[in-house]
Specification:
The chain is of the alpha/beta class. Helices cover 49% and strands 9% of the residues. The protein starts with a helix and ends with a helix.
Length: 209
């Protein structure tokens, strides 16, 4: 029995230093200074409320550009407030996403119609019908330097929609995501249900400690 204990101590004494040396030289080794079980998971960059300075400059330029073209600009706070209104639910306020199909499917504002001015024939009839009865039309694209929302608004204006109805979300989808605001996926048919579910989850997160 004494021999077995001596053998065990010999293996332990030889193996432990060897393991430390190998761990130090291997890229996949364990970092003893690292916390592998942090108390909280870091937030993603999209959850940041602070927009980069260069993007803020792009937004300011976009607002000036909109004014020169005769369009007004809306802030994200204004759009967020409108998304809780009855006018939005009854489509007195209409949202138009001026990006392409892939971008729209990956995430858009709830109940937004898709209207790509590069391919207007795809949704022109549907969008025109909605714009004619709407009291306010909010158009957005990626925001900042992206001018697709302005081109879309100008196209619809040329089709007979009153200029005074249009407003553009200058920060666009990039600013919306940078602010940590949620979006809906897929097509607009299930947007309202999905949006209410999202808001319900947000409310639960706020209430729970």
């Amino acid at each position: 029995m004494r021999v077995a204990w001596l053998e065990w101590l010999f293996v332990l004494g030889l193996g432990l230093p060897l393991a430390v040396v190998l761990n130090h030289h291997l890229d996949s080794g364990i970092d003893i200074t690292r916390d592998y079980f942090p108390d909280s998971i870091p937030q993603s960059p999209a959850a940041s409320k602070i927009q980069p300075a260069d993007f803020q400059a792009e937004v300011r330029e976009a607002i000036s550009r909109l004014e020169r073209k005769g369009f007004s600009a809306l802030s994200m706070d204004q759009v967020w407030f409108l998304l809780g209104s009855e006018e939005w639910k009854t489509e007195q306020i209409v949202l138009i996403d001026a990006r392409n199909e892939a971008a729209y499917a990956a995430g858009h504002l709830p109940l937004a119609y898709r209207f790509d001015h590069y391919h207007p024939e795809e949704h022109l009839d549907e969008v025109l019908a909605a714009c004619l009865v709407a009291s306010q039309i909010i158009v957005y694209c990626n925001g900042g330097q992206c001018e697709d929302s302005e081109f879309a608004a100008a196209y619809l204006r040329d089709m007979g929609i009153e200029t005074s109805k249009f407003a553009v979300l200058a920060e666009g989808m990039n600013g919306w995501l940078l602010a940590g605001h949620p979006v809906v996926l897929g097509d607009r048919q299930d947007d309202l249900i999905e949006w209410e579910t999202i808001l319900g989850n947000i409310e639960l997160e706020v209430v729970q400690p």
